Amino acid sequence: MFSDDQDIDHGDLRSSTTPWLTSGGPEIRPVAGSFACDVLVVGAGITGAMVAESFTRRGHEVVIIDRETPGHGSTGASTAMLLWEIDRPLSELTQAYGFERAARCYTASIRAVQGLISLTRRYRIPCHIRDRLSLYLAVDDSGRSLREESELRARADLPGVFLDHASLFRRFEIARAGAILSPHSADADPVELTHELLKISIGRGAAIRQADATAFESAGAKVIVGLNGGYEIEANRVVLCTGYVMPGIVRPTIQRPTSSWAIATEPQPQNLWPEDVLIWEASKDYHYARSTTDGRIIFGGEDDDSAIEPQAREALTSAKRKRLRQQLGAMWPRSSGKIDYCWSGAFDTTQDGLPLIGPVPGQKNIFAAYGYGGNGITFSYLAAELLATFCSGGNSPLLDDFAIDRSG
């Protein structure tokens, strides 16, 4: 995580080009003076776009600000695997928080993916979103822990089936001790999704402006946000969607900064694994894989918390590229070894694998939406719905589950 007093630009959040970086975003003009609004969304990446859409859908007047091009920071580095399965297994969350709370978080996550898919279809958003099965691969020799995880999921009424070694190999030609196969995940183009959601909000009357929020004052009835040009924005509510650049007023203790890498192969639709499932491993620092609509394989992982600064990430990229290529070949030998893209990005996680969503402690009418971890886009949608509902008079126990000041 970077702090907002550092001079951070998009190059610090991701390195090199990715398959997503295309034109077509909304026009963003600099702030020309001080003004007032109902809801100010700080950040125009995927989280800010979802928050703006959710608030405008409920009739709120919204202004979105970002200091750079919308959707081209950490959003552009996303592999956009829209998984509902959380980084921490249900069994681990149950040990930490009890079964009821753990099951509630998992259920909310699966509903978030379903809600996002429904949203894109309702508004016919052209973001290449596709319903996908997910394949959660064992990394040990027995698959016993995954079998137990599958049984606990069934107790929570979560969909999925355990595949033993023989069943897994017969259906997917992947040689592991076992796997959990689950429905209701998805994949998409994160930049197109961001741009289209912003356009929907703008069509409802929202404004998007280029500005850098440098100060927040929430002691009075309104929140006053100071900008780098000396102007101020007076808002009834402020939602922080700043990704891996977190303002100093937000002080969680359970997040961990790291960096992650990914590669994208040349198009090779003839070499893809059966059923185009999303693939990820049952380990803390897992590898993951998906395909794209033009038949590329995206393969990522190799997280490293010793290389946070951009220069350190870049220095490791050649070795990480080689390692990812080797790991892809080991998992799926049929894949072509030609790599068209390799990139890295800032990537924060939390100790419990859950997002940071809700009121910022000690800051009246300022809210945070940080979907850290491997479920970033899923958690972004969840944050958008929870916060818009809360600010419209509703509530949810999930706001306690995801509280900014919780201990992991």
Low-confidence stretches: 5-14
Residues in helix, % = 25-40%
Please report the total strand number as a whole number: 21
- Using the coordinates above, name the CATH class of the largest domain: Alpha Beta
Tell me what portion of residues adopts beta-strand conformation.
Answer: 25-35%
Instruction: Assign the CATH architecture of the largest domain.
Output: 3-Layer(bba) Sandwich
Number of helices: 11
Give the total of domains.
Answer: 2
What does this structure look like?
- Strands 2, 6, 7, 8, 9, 15, 16, 17, 18 and 19 form a 10-stranded mixed beta sheet that branches.
- This protein has 408 residues and is α/β, with parallel strands linked by helices.
- It has 11 helices and 21 strands.
- Strand 11 and strand 12 form a beta hairpin.
- The protein has 2 domains: 189 residues, FAD/NAD(P)-binding domain (3-Layer(bba) Sandwich); 148 residues, D-Amino Acid Oxidase, subunit A, domain 2 (D-Amino Acid Oxidase, Chain A, domain 2, 2-Layer Sandwich).
- The relative contact order is 0.20.
- The chain is globular, with a radius of gyration of 21 Å.
Quick rundown:
This protein is α/β, with parallel strands linked by helices and 408 residues long. The protein has helices at residues 10-13, 46-57, 74-77, 90-97, 99-122, 144-155, 165-172, 190-203, 310-331, 376-391, 398-401, and strands spanning 2-3, 14-15, 29-30, 35-42, 62-66, 81-82, 130-137, 161-164, 178-187, 207-210, 213-217, 223-227, 232-240, 245-246, 255-265, 278-281, 288-291, 297-304, 339-350, 356-359, 366-370. The chain is 31% helix and 28% strand.
